[in-house]
Automatic annotation (TrEMBL):
Transmembrane segments: none annotated. SUPFAM superfamilies: Complement control module/SCR domain. It comes from the Eukaryota. This is Sushi domain-containing protein.
Length: 199
């Protein structure tokens, strides 16, 4: 029995040493097939060690540091391509086909729906930070003389208003506001509830 017990202990020690040696031999070399820039020194790293890193232009880091694991460097991949999400605008639609995200320098055109301004398509572009540039402010309703109103403080009938901006209206000559209609309306996500005037 003692001989069997000693053999069992011996085998456990051999297996433990094998595991320790195996773990101690796990190393990670420079990640060759990933979009990692060489701005930091990368030597051969041991299991569990961490390394600062940066990514090539057009890519972003997926973690603050890279960690050496039994499966190589994590996270996998270390760098992800910078993309822009498709922005959404009330009362507007994309011109042509659309994707859920876009690569850097991709261009997209938006057009306001019928009855909203501006009438011309607006072009936006995905920048190097993953943000859309020249983003359409809002699509706003046309002001129309059919309901007898005009802008109170501006001579033109076309304005661009931002969300939550108040706009003052006046009735055309010889008309007055209908009951319960206020002369001031607020732009709400591109929609303005226009007051109405009557004779």
């Amino acid at each position: 029995f003692h001989r069997f017990l000693m053999l069992h202990v011996f085998l456990l020690l051999v297996l433990y040493n094998y595991h320790v040696n195996l773990v101690s031999e796990i190393t990670c070399e420079y990640p060759r097939d990933q979009h990692v820039s060489r701005s930091y020194y990368w030597g051969t790293m041991k299991l569990g060690e961490k390394q600062s890193y940066s990514c090539a232009s057009g890519y972003r880091k997926k973690a603050a540091e890279a960690t050496c694991t039994q499966d190589g460097w994590t996270p996998k991949p270390l760098c992800a391509e910078i993309m822009c999400d498709l922005p959404k605008f009330p009362n507007a639609e994309i011109v042509g086909s659309q994707n859920s995200n876009y690569k850097i320098n991709s261009r997209i055109q938006y057009k306001c729906r019928s009855g909203f301004e501006p009438e011309e398509p607006v072009q936006i572009i995905c920048d190097s930070q993953g943000q859309m540039l020249h983003v359409l402010q809002q699509c706003v309703q046309h002001l129309t003389s059919q309901i007898g109103i005009m802008l109170k403080w501006k001579s033109n009938e076309k304005i661009i208003s931002t969300h939550n901006e108040a706009i003052d209206f006046a009735c055309q000559s010889g008309k007055k506001f209908k009951a319960q209609n206020l002369p001031r309306s607020t732009c709400n996500d591109g929609v303005i509830n226009l007051p109405e005037c009557e004779e």
